[in-house]
Amino acid sequence: MTWLVTGGAGYIGAHVVRAFTEQGMSVVVLDDLSSGHTTFLPESVPFVRGSILDSALVESTLLDHAVTGVVHIAGFKYAGVSVERPLHTYAQNVTGTLVLLEAMAAVGVSRIVFSSSAAVYGTPDTDLVTEATPKSPQSPYGESKLIGEWLLADQGVAAGLAHTSLRYFNVVGSGYPDVYDTSPHNLFPLIFEALLTGRTPRIYGTDYPTPDGTCVRDYIHVADLAHSHVAAARRLDAGDPIEPVYNLGSGDGVSVGEIMTAVRDVTGIDFTPELADRRAGDPARIVASGDLAARDLDWSMRHTLAEMVDSAYRARANAATTRR
């Protein structure tokens, strides 16, 4: 049995690919390299360069590699930018998922693990988000992920598609010294880029109703995330009961201020963050329960905040050294 990982050359995707291979499971990667890197992939993993919007390529990839299941990670993942580029976001995330599902149906592939997002919740009016929390996405990105979940559910009814969607917030850390988060929008890369270029990281808002006045979010280690993707795929392969959605959440969250302190302690770089006004639309606290995923997908927070920071910084610093 072979699993196709769309977006498998990206930061999250490459961790999922390596988790599969380490469990002895066969994978093939489809990625257009818009944000991915072939250097993140093991040489033994077949790689197909192209877009999930290319229906002929998707279908031929499924057939040529005898694919039996798909982990769908490819997509446009920048919530803030999606407000400025809604049509691009919908094309990549909605049309792309539709094309993929059509290709799967055409060749008889009936299992999929979908990389969704906690952005489907928007700004929930609760201290702890569960799978039953009302969905109210506040960006085209969040809306596109929710539509993707609907597509899977409808195809499940219509064609018996076996599926599950994994929702998560902020993915950090690194499981390997040669794979790191290259996003220009995520907090950890922004902090490290500032420190490595002699600038000072910035905190937006210090007057929130939280213990230290800064925003509290879920931060989960990418290797833990990848592990549960494999667990979900194994469950689908075995035909075991599976929920349509799972939150991969920490249950308690970490503040931006705590992250800055951890970065200073772990890296040994002494700095005092610049303080700036709140950004519009940033809620004080969003934290999710991972209880359901812990029950079914062997989900747990296996890494401390210090380990998340250390692994992420080492991988990013290693990349900076390698490029010289």
UniProtKB/TrEMBL annotation:
Key words, A-Z: Carbohydrate metabolism, Isomerase, NAD
InterPro entries assigned to the protein according to its UniProt record, in alphabetical order: Epimerase_deHydtase (IPR001509), NAD(P)-bd_dom_sf (IPR036291), UDP_G4E (IPR005886)
Listed EC numbers: 5.1.3.2
Pfam name, any one: Epimerase
Cofactor(s), names only, from the UniProt record: NAD(+)
An example molecular function term from Gene Ontology annotations: UDP-glucose 4-epimerase activity
Domain of life according to the entry: Bacteria
Record's catalysed reaction(s): UDP-alpha-D-glucose = UDP-alpha-D-galactose
Domain NAD-dependent epimerase/dehydratase: 3-249
Metabolic or biological pathway: Carbohydrate metabolism; galactose metabolism
GO biological process: galactose catabolic process via UDP-galactose, Leloir pathway
Family that this chain belongs to: Belongs to the NAD(P)-dependent epimerase/dehydratase family.
Protein name in UniProt: UDP-glucose 4-epimerase
The organism of origin for this protein: Mycetocola manganoxydans
